[in-house]
Here is the input.
Amino acid sequence: MNEKKDLLNDLKIDRSEDNEPESSFIKRLGFVLVSIIILFLVLTQLGFLSQDEIIEVDAYKAKSANQSNNSTSSVLDASGYVTARMQATVSSKITGKVLEVYIEEGMFVEKDQILAQLDDSTVQAELKFAETQLQEARRVFNRTLELRKDNLASQASLDAAESQLDGLKARLDISKQIVSDMKIRAPFSGVVINKAAQPGEMISPVSAGGGFTRTGIGTIVDMDSLEVEVDVNESYINRVQPGQPAITNLNAYPEWDINSEVIAIIPTADRNKATVKVRIGLLEKDQRVLPDMGAKVSFLKEQPNTKSVVLKGVIVPSTSVIKEGASSFVFLIKNGIIVKTKVQVESTSANYARIINGIKNGDSVVVNSNNGLQDGQEVVIK
Here is the structure.
């Protein structure tokens, strides 16, 4: 019995010796991986494996002082937004169900162009009924008129038939107008900036249905009526006059100087903000100007009709200039590398500085130099 048991034990496979090398290999592999990760983290922290970070910066091309003379004569700066004097949310005269919508955002529409079609099946039936009644009333009037010629009908009967005929003509005109009103048309030429309704929805000129009824098909803006509205502190409103020249810079295009002028000063003040609203007209029309864009307006001095003075140097934003004691510097961008360049500033205004030495017309400089930039750093222009 014991011999058989011993024989069976001899046939068993002892795996303890095989597991020991495998376990030892896994431990060594784990130790190596952990060491590599720690070494990588240490090298990254020390900066051996990281490259210099490329920073995006706003750039400005230096302009000739004579070209930008208006910018240096600013007497006041104010911020505001582009607004449209002609903007309308187009709705219907009556409540109805939308069948088709023919507009999309960004589409240009002409005056009286059909924007949407409402369900007119009911009013079309009423129009046909009014036409039938009018035909019958016309026949009655004609028969009564013939009878009246033969003295077979009274004058009162003829007058009643004529009155009924006139009333049904007016009713037919009303039915035709209702059918026409089921086609929603553009009140003026402009661009669609919002599409508010879809086929199958109900639309009404007033809010109804617990907020589930639309009150407009879409919003149209006349892009030729765009202007800028700014809030001027009431303490400085005496510096602004109607017709005064100005320069407008959009936040989206800070290098683009748009010739403008003051249209009007709104004759009321905001007591909460202590400001007065001023309307600024844009003398240049461009498709880049969009409603609700942020803008900055520089009100200029009234220039006398005398021979202009030739100014030396170039104009850059005042935020580009770095002051270090008595010296001034700018970050010049050359082939994607910023170079700290010493310059000579002749004069400054609220927004710009005139530099007569160090850079030339057309050079690109960093707009905001106070953001931790270093000489020789690689940058990308936004």
User: Anything to note?
Assistant: Residues 218 and 253 are 28 Å apart (CA to CA). Helices lie at 2-11, 16-46, 69-72, 121-149, 155-181.
